[in-house]
Amino acid sequence: MPDPFTSPVETVAEIPALRKLVEAERKQNASIGFVPTMGALHAGHMSLIEAAHRDCDFVVVSIFVNPTQFGPNEDFEKYPRVVEQDLVKCHEAGADLVWLPTTEIMYPKNFSTCVTVKMLSQVLEGKTRPDHFEGVTSVVTKLLLCSLPDIAYFGAKDYQQQAIIRRMCLDLNIPVEIKTCPIVRDTDGLALSSRNAYLSEAERESALSLSRALKLAEERIHAGETDLNQLTAEMQQLISTTPLLKLDYATIVDAGTLEEISAPQPDMVALVAAYAGATRLIDNCLLSADATD
Ligand code: AMP
What we know:
By secondary structure, the protein is an alpha/beta fold.
């Protein structure tokens, strides 16, 4: 029989127990950092925990594969669940407490409330995954209300998600500062994602076209490109002609409103989404028409 696993970091499941532990820290004037995740942690997640550890006295990480943000034909069932490995990584990155709520804890019988952020949730990912962001915003609201952090950390990898969460916290006066941390990539440019584990070697190779399309956008804007329609057409072409990839979108939008733009402006973001086989991949890159370096 394998040895029983001993977590290197304190864990908690129930909400009252979580609240008690956070409250005790607060009483000692500790600042609270919070990093929500779905587990299967990689260096991208760890960079968020490390940032929280640098900024805050007490760092809470949640691991919860939230069923309501998966569509009916998506990968909820097969999403990787490796809690023991995750706890080791949380400890290494500087987490003080890992919250592991069950689905029953988060969604007890008769649960009926959801939080919808209009507009920002309806474009890009929202077009292909119509209920996804409602699942995200509803669960993040609960996670924030249960952990009551000073600062919550999100990755720029999910650019639209962090924009929606910022909007939500402003609109609902949720008293938390949102920090967005840079995208962590493999050395070849592929953005780290828990879903990369699904990719075959050939799919992974093809997936590099996403970051290459973003690089193309970055270089061309830097070189003074003004025709964004032409540029996005080239990004789309690069992805859609890659074997094993099915393009969803490749576009350049206003970094704040996420509305499509046809001419360069100071704050823009290039976003791409494609399927590599059955695996949905997203990536993005902030662009600035003012870039001088
Ligand atoms: P997830 O476990 O996929 O829900 O992600 C949890 C958090 O980690 C989200 O805020 C993501 O944006 C962030 N994240 C995921 N991948 C990366 C990455 N490659 N670089 C930085 N942050 C990431």
